[in-house]
Write a structure and sequence with these properties.
The chain has 225 residues and is α/β, with parallel strands linked by helices. 44% of the residues lie in helices and 23% in strands.
């Protein structure tokens, strides 16, 4: 199949099952206008995140990698009125765009955007969690891939048995199979997948996808007792 066919199928699925609304459309438009990279999740993948949060009965969500807040909106819409999303963004300009998009969607009361290197923000979250434990029910990891394993380790510390962890962009165009790769993104992704496979408190799988994002995929892990 060709990219054109993949796009056509995604357009059909999206139009039927994940139609755009003003908040989502504007979030993408304003992100493009601000010059953010066009790497937000596809609409049908955003709907998948939304459904997973619903199925999980999530009240607290951690997102590592905000970009323009598009995936944040999908996740936050799945939460109850007293729910909470904490989303971590390295770039202050991206965070400003995300805050505007989230506020326009009417979700600024339940979403907090924290700015800075994610590992620093996670260290602060760890200290907060140690003082007042309130674990996350779902963690979505979609930031710099070199640190995937470290993000996953933090996700384990900040969740509970039964929590769900989603790791995006794990296929790397097929390069994830290259054990000799020196690409930091491939190395970080392989380390995270190996951690899922080996950690006694995790069970998970990974799925290949094709679509508007090309040849891609995600990993899904559940925290065990």
């Amino acid at each position: 199949m060709t990219q054109e066919q993949w796009d056509s199928v995604d357009d059909y699925f999206t139009g039927l099952l994940a139609p755009a609304d003003e908040a989502l459309t504007t979030a993408l438009r304003d992100s493009d206008t601000a010059g953010l990279p066009q790497i937000a999740v596809a609409p049908n993948q955003g709907k998948l995140l939304h459904l997973l949060a619903h199925i999980q009965g999530a009240r607290r969500v951690l997102e590592i990698g905000t970009l323009g807040g598009y995936s944040t909106i999908w996740l936050a819409r799945a939460l109850p009125a007293d729910g909470r999303v904490i989303t971590l963004e390295y770039n202050p300009a991206h965070a400003d765009v995300a805050r505007g998009n989230i506020a326009r969607a009417g979700l600024d009361k339940i979403v907090e955007v924290r700015v800075g290197p994610a590992l620093d923000s996670l260290t602060a979250l760890g200290a907060e969690h140690a003082a007042h434990p309130d674990p996350f029910d779902l963690v979505f990891i979609d930031a710099d891939k070199a640190n995937n394993a470290r993000y996953l380790e933090w996700a384990l510390q900040l969740t509970r048995p039964g929590s769900l962890i989603i790791l995006d962009n794990v296929v790397r165009g097929g390069a994830v199979t290259d054990a000799a790769s020196t690409d930091p993104a491939v190395l970080g992704t392989r380390s995270a997948l190996e951690l899922i496979a080996e950690h006694p408190k995790l069970t998970g799988t990974a799925v290949q996808t094709v679509g508007t994002k090309g040849y891609d995929g995600f990993a899904l892990a559940r925290v065990l007792d």
